[in-house]
Amino acid sequence: MTKSWKVSDILDMQGEDVQFAHVAKHLYNKCEHWEHAIPDLGDAFHKACKAGCAHAKLKKDYPKCSCVTPQCKAHVLRDHDELLSPAYRDALKEAEEVARFGLLDEDRSDGRAWMYVGDQGVIVIVREVKRPRRVEVKTAYRADCECRNTDPNSFFKEAVRKLRDKTSWNGGGS
Amino acid sequence: MNANDWIHKALDELTSLLSSRLDDPADSWRAAVLIARIQGSPIGPTLPAEFVAQLPELLQVAGQPDHETLLDLLIDELESDDEPWGRLLDVLLDVDDALGVLVLAKHDDTAHELSARIAALMSLYPSRSIPLVSFAQMRLETTRHDSVIAKLWQTIERAPAQVWAEALPAVIEGKPTEVVLLTLGRPWFEAAYSKLQRAFATFKPAFTELCAYIRPDVPLDFAATLGDSSTVSLELVWGEIQYLEVALNTLVKVRGPSTYQLWYSTSSNSDLLEHGAWMLEQGDSPVLITATESQHATSLDEALKSGCRAASLVIVEANNGTI
Known about the structure:
Distance between the termini of chain A: 18 Å
Strand order of the largest sheet of chain B: 3-9-8-5-6
Distance between the termini of chain B: 30 Å
Structural class of chain A: alpha+beta
Number of strands of chain B: 9
Oligomer: heterodimer
Largest sheet of chain A: 4 strands, antiparallel
Order of helices and strands of chain B: HHHHHHHHHHHHHEEEEEEEEHE
Radius of gyration of chain A: 16 Å
Mean pLDDT of chain A: 88
Helix content of chain B: 40-55%
Shape of chain B: elongated
Low-confidence stretches of chain A: none
Mean pLDDT of chain B: 83
Number of strands of chain A: 4
Number of helices of chain B: 14
Largest sheet of chain B: 5 strands, mixed
Strand content of chain B: 15-25%
């Protein structure tokens, strides 16, 4: 389970559509309770709507930045850069410090994938990309707990359980 | 990931969980899930009797899974194009957990129904499943092959074959399976084959009076006389692609009375076929030989575009597993 890179080498999610979709599907999803990881988050979805985003466009199954106004797109992408990205980068650092990560996918044809779990239960999956050679975040989200569950520890426990089930990680740093 | 390590991790975690009182229903659920995994495993480990004794209380606290929510979540993830090892695999594991607990709680009918619905749903999205085949194969080692849980992961394990099978009718129809299979993983062959199909659609099949003569283990300069006496021959048909398996170092020559040009196509080149013959050597297979009812075309493409009749022959090395 060796890798030649560190968390500081990992690039953010690449591509506006990927960033937009993750903000809309995850950061703005109240059931994921991102306020556990981003204390000043407030009602990010409401703020996006006030900034010009149509409610329905953000709630679509496959939200795309090409389907919204330029103002909405700019707002959502800014939320990625200023809110979601720092949250998942913090999760990567926290996970690396206590070795709370594991190898997911060993198929080198697609590039190996690794799963990290931060202290607030933020799950980040990164993948090694071959050409050009880099490591990038592929997805970041919070574990699926019951929506009414607001206990941060529940999200962390569920994330760690998924880390244990999906990788060879066996509890170091829990 | 090693299947033995994975299932033994479950016992480690269960031991840790049950070492203290479980107040959180999520912890009771997790304990029940781990018991289900270990009990359902054909490769061990052995579940301590005192853990099994706690099962009724665990099940009472854990409650029952919400099937409809699971199905909704699964559909959402199948229809997205997010990283499959992320939320999609999480939901599949939640389904796995739910099936295990249903069986533990003796709700076998419900488990079977849920398993069948999930497998049917998964079969509609084989492309989303393919990246998870390695995980599915690992999980299948840790569950009995006739279990409801196995059904879920078997659907995923079969996804690559399903994608291929679904692609076949779009590539070729009514053609020999062996030739169809050659197109898989060979974009040049698929492109050449499709081009020939389009050309063949413009005329009716008819015998060509062209024959392919085959002699093994003879040098290329034998081509001049091959066909005067031969052991095997195959008549080409305008508008059809014939399939021919031969051993290495077999000479295949096409000759006949009609006016025609002969072409060869391989993974690296396409050109006029010298001497009308091809010696199949190591690494050649498959080779596409095409006869066109043309005289002065400078390329196969030009000949086909002119609308003249064409007949093809695919030469494949016999018994090399190429297909």
